[in-house]
Structures are given as structure tokens and as C-alpha cells.
Amino acid sequence: MSGYVIRRILGTIPTLFIIVTICFFFIRLAPGGPFDREKAIPENILRNIEEKYNLDEPIVVQYARYVYSLLRGDLGPSFRYADRSVSEYLFRSLPNSMLLASLAMGIALMIGISSGVIAGYKRNTLYDYSFMLFAVFGVSVPSFVIGPLFMYFFSLQWGLLPTSGWLSGRAGVLTLVLPVISLALYYVATMARLSRASTIEVLQSDYIRTANAKGLSPSYILTKHVLKGALLPIASYFGPTFAAMLTGSVVIETIFRVPGIGVFFVQSAFNRDYTMIMGTVIIYSTVLIVMNLLVDIIYGILDPRISYS
Amino acid sequence: MKPILEVKHLRTQFKTDIGIVKAVDDVSFDLKKGEVLGIVGESGSGKTVMGMSIMGLLPIGKNVSVSGDVIFGNENLIEKKERYMRDIRGKKIAMIFQDPMTSLNPFLRISTQLIEIMRRHLDISKQDAKDRAIELLQLTGVPQPKQRVDDYPHQFSGGMRQRIMIAMAISCDPSLIIADEPTTALDVTIQAQVMELLHKLKDQLDTSIILITHDLGVVAGFCDRVHVMYSGKIVEKASTNELFEDPKHPYTKGLLKSIPRADSEIKGELYTIPGQPPLLVSLPDGCPFAPRCEFVRSECTVSYPPISNFSHERNVHCWLYGDDANE
Q1: CA-CA 20 to 30 A from B218: which of A251, A264, B71, B226?
Q2: Are the beta carbons of B86 and A217 separated by less than 8 Å?
Q3: How far is the alpha carbon of B224 from chain A, nearest alpha carbon, in Å?
Q4: Measured between beta carbons, which residues in chain A are less than 8 angstroms from residue B97?
Q5: Closest-CA residue in chain B for A203?
């Protein structure tokens, strides 16, 4: 197992290199550049700026220069924000997004899976119907509606929680509550629907009939015989989803003014901030690769038929 | 001697979109201690549902109903609550299923699956249960049981898995085993081995067995008596010898004719019963076999034939014998 993990981690290096290469050339194909403004910048000033960022060199040389600095762990200067480097921006905001995502995912796993499994087990009962109704609501109401609604009621109307202000002021941890819940709601709902469906599928399998024929109690069958099989689809959903959450949720972060990384994903593309785009892509790819590895490891733990060597 | 199982007028019906499916329709039979009863019929004749009904494994509710009596050890199982049935299942009545590839939980070790049933029904410590699990695997002919008891199902072949299923079924010393097509999913040589094992265990443990199968060859070597099922009804009851020597019902005759025989002189195509078994919704008033029967008469399509008794435990439902048999 550990040999497999090491090989997989080493395998990410060429993958990342290919992503970096493709991305580097592709973003330069998009029309416009980092210094295009509504009002044209005088030719000589533009040339000076381009010279400062080495944009006047042939693209292959720029690429070699970028890869070289990347190997030393430097993501380069931002083309848009002159005062700090890309690494500074990204690694300062990433932990905030990760905290938000982890708390939301924790809630989604706990509430989503348990309620989904119970709904699947108590299929077509009042519990099932009411919870699935809630799940449809959770899936279909977008976070830019949920967020302001929560803010309106919990903060403005009832004064229970702060509207925003990430971990600052007297409110402290309480500032986490609204963004985390607003983000989690959708994932609670999807997890619940997924685990309900997989529970129903497992319950219809031959080996559950065997377990029933052995006279085992329903609660024992549910925890010992159903759960593992029912969790497999959740594991495959978990990986890419958590990767996307960890790298920032633009809407929630904007609404609740969370100093997260999400905004850079959107803004860097608009700004044609080449190095910032590269930085976000590298971070997202790395997180995604790590999550996929994690999913494979979870699969290996859940399903004895899968073995890594 | 009092039979250990008496089934009286068992009816199992499913409500579906296209009508009520009478999967088991007024089935009655009994089973003596140590006896092996074969239930024979083609796919969809209601054999499996009958076994599930006796075990109380069907999700009885607004779409599934089971009625009649299943008398097992002075108790009518049909009237019993699910909680009571959980104490019966696995302990007094065990079941062996058709497909050993899917009937064992792929996520759990063999030892876990063997130990849990013993811990559920017997007052036994975990370690003792594990020792007994190894003994049971030994008894059912799983090689190297001590080394292999902690393996997962996918590490065993189909035949070995069925042996494990059998080990599980006999683990709590049941007085009745319902074996639902135990060899259907196995290849022929393995089939013979598994049947031989069941035979050996039956004598050792003195249990009764209901063997549900569509394979008359399996019946011949194993069962004391045979009931032939067609579209949810038992159409013929006989001892195994009588059935093979003198089949009465045209359906039974057809079944016997369609077995390939190694010593047969006749070359050419194997006999098949023409037509398809009827859908179990909206069955006609008459004999359900009438549309496929080569001896069909006018009364066959009018009403279901009454029972014709030939001797004790030898009877048939067929208009051909309506007049002479009861005289």
C-alpha cells in the first residue's frame, strides 16, 4: 500500500508538468493581455511594462523562465497586483477557503450520509418523503439565494450571528457559522440523495437477503452489511467535490466576505493575469490529484476486492 | 409421525401495475423429519417465492400478501411477528440460495459472516464461534479452513462459496433447510459434489430439506418425494420413484421427456414443451397448462381440474384422471 501511494505521488509530477505546459500556452491564445485597458496605454510605456515582466521575449524563452522559477517554488509576480507575488496571495487565502470547505464537508458527510442511509432504509415512509423534499430544496436553491436569506434572518432580523467578518472582532468563531452552513446545505442534500440511492441498491442485493435469512437484526444488517457498500458511490463523489470546495467557493466567499482563494480563480481570468491563472491552476490540479488518490485509498479500505500493490 | 412442516393453502400475491400476480396459489404439502422434498418447476412457477414465504422473507405490506398456514413445530409462522421470525430464521430454518457468487457479502470476511449467525442464535463466545466456523468449513470440504477462514468471498470459487453457504446454513443445527436451486449457478461436476455434500450432511445432521430446483436429474438422486409446480400451483405429488416411472400429469411427462439422456438411442433434437409458461396475472379459469398440453380436452379450458388421488401422497390435478382415479 505505501509503495503504491509513493508511486502515485511521484506520478503526479509529470501530470502537473503537462498541465502547466498546456495551460501556459493556452492562456496566451486568449484574446487580450494583462495590460489591456479601456484607454490604450502609450506604446512606449507598454513596451517598458512588457520588458519588466519579460513579455517581450520569445514565448518559448518565457516558458523556460517560468518553469525554472516554478522549480524553485516561485509562482512569479502578479501582473495585476504589483505589490505582492502570486504565492503570497494564494497561500495567504487558501487556508481560509480550506477551513470553510472542511467544516462544510464535515457537516455534509455527517448529516448527509446518515439521513440518506436512513431515508433509503425507511424508503417510502414519511421520514423519507420529508427528508427528500428538503434535499430537493437544498439542491435546487442556489447559494446566492440561501446566503443573503440566512444573513437577513439570522443577522439582521434576529441579531443572532454576524453577517460577515471572517474570524475577526468579538464575534470570532461565530462568523464561521453562516458561511459554513450556507455552503454545506447543497452538499448535505446531494450526499443524502446519493446515499439514499446507494442504500436502496445495496438493500436489494442477494447478500442482504442472505443476512435477513440468517435472522440478523435490522440495525445490525444496516451497519454491518449495508453501510460499506452504500458508501462506495459517496467516496467517488467526495474526491472531486471536496477538491472544488477546498479551492474556494466564489459565491459564498463573496457574500460573506471570506478572504478566500475563490476570488482569484475568477478575477485572474478576467484580468488575463497570466501568472495568477497559472498559480490557481497548479493549486487546483494538485488538490484534485491528492483528492483522487485519497478516494482510491478509501476504496481500498472499503472494498476488499480492490488491492493495491 | 407428525410432520415437522405443514403448509396449508399457502397463497402469495403481489400487486403490480398490470394486475395481481398469484405467485403461489393455494399450495399445500407437508414434510416429515429427515425427509427430502423436491419442488420442481420451471422459472416463474413460484418455487422461490414459496420458499421465501415460508421463511417470512417477503416484505409483506400493501403490495405483497401471504395467507394460509405454515405450521412449524406447533406454531403457525404466517401469524408470527417479524421479531419471532428472526429467531426462527437461520436457527430453526436455514436457507441456501441459488447464486453463491452474490449471496455472500463481498465486503466481509468469511469468518465474520459465519460467526455472526452463531453469535446471533447460540450462546457462544467469539473464539468458540470461530473454532466452530473452522470445523464447519472442514465438514463442508473447504480446503485449509484454518488458513482461509479470514479470507473474503472473492478469494473462493463458486463451488467453494456454495460450500461456505452450506456451512453457514448448518451452523445452528436447523431442523429444516430450504435449498433454493443450490446448484443452478455451478458447473456440472461441481453440482455433483455439492449435492453429494448435502446428502452426506442430511444423514449426519438428521435435518429435513426442501430442495427447490428445475433440474430433475438433481431430484432423482436426492429426494424422497417430489412435488411438481406449475404457475404457482402444485400439479402433481409423487414419490421420486413413482414420478420417474409413471408420471401422470402431462407437464411432468413433458419435463421428463426433455431431459437429455446419456443412454438414449434416439438421435436428433431434444424434446421441448411447446409454448411459454403463462404470466401469473389474470390466469385463465381452466388448467394453466392447457394451452401447451398435447392431451388438452374441452373441460381443461373451463375450470381448474380437481385433485385425483391415486394413493396416499400420490395425486395429480388433471382432467385426464378426473373420472377414473377416484373410483
Answers
A1: B71
A2: yes
A3: 25
A4: 206, 209-210, 213
A5: B105
Q: Does domain A89-302 have CATH number 1.10.630.10?
A: no
DSSP 8-class letter at B290: G
Is the CB of A210 less than 8 angstroms away from the CB of B108?
A: no
B266 pLDDT band (50/70/90 cuts)?
A: low
Which three three-digit cell numbers place residue B97?
A: 440460495
Query: What is the torsion angle, in degrees rounded to the nearest 10, for the CA atoms of residue B157, residue B162, residue B168 and residue B169?
Result: 180
Kindly report, residue by residue over B51-65, the tens digit of the pLDDT: 999 999 998 888 999
Q: Does A301 touch chain B (CB under 8 A)?
A: no
Contact (Cβ atoms closer than 8 angstroms) between residue A203 and residue A226:
yes
Note whether A250 and A265 are within 8 A (CB): yes
Output B312 or B212, whichever has higher pLDDT: B212
CB-CB contact of A188 with A111 (8 Å):
yes
Query: Domains of chain B, with CATH numbers?
Result: 5-92+175-262 (3.40.50.300), 104-173 (no CATH)
Each residue of A89-128: b (16+ CB within 10 Å) or e?
A: bbeebbebbbbbbebbbebbbebbbebbbbbbbeeeeeeb
Q: B90 and A214 in contact by Cβ < 8 A?
A: yes
Choose the closest CB to A216 out of B55, B116, B154. Answer: B116
Nearest CA in chain B to A210: B103
The whole-angstrom distance between B77's CA and the closest CA on chain A is 14
A187 and A243 Cβ atoms separated by less than 8 Å? no
Cross-chain residue pair B116–A224, CB shorter than 8 Å: yes
Q: Do B95 and A224 touch (CB under 8 A)?
A: no
Question: In chain A, which among 195-254 make CB contacts under 8 A with chain B?
Answer: 205-207, 209-217, 220, 224-225, 228-229
Chain A residues touching residue B55 (CB < 8 angstroms): 213
Q: Which of residues 110-169 of B touch A (CB under 8 A)?
A: 116-117, 120-121, 152, 154, 165, 168
What is the model's pTM? 0.85
Helix (H, G, I), strand (E, B) or coil at B180: strand
Check CB contact under 8 Å for B117 and A214: yes
Domain ranges of chain A: 2-71, 89-302
Report pLDDT digits (tens) over B174-193: 999 999 999 888 888 888 88
CA proximity to B142, closest of B167, B111, B173: B167
Q: Which residues of A216-245 are buried (b: 16+ CB within 10 A; e: fewer)?
A: beeeebbebbbbbbbbbebbebbbebbbeb
Res A162 pLDDT > 90 = no
Q: How far apart are CA A155 and CA A148, in angstroms?
A: 10
- B291: β partners: none
In the predicted structure, residue A261 carries a pLDDT above the cut 80: yes
What secondary structure, in 3-state letters, does A224-289 show?
Answer: HHHHHHHHHHHHHHHHHHHHHHHCCCHHHHHHCCCCCCHHHHHHHHHHCCHHHHHHHHHHHHHHHH
Nearest CA in chain B to A227: B107
User: Quick one: DSSP state of residue B123?
Assistant: -
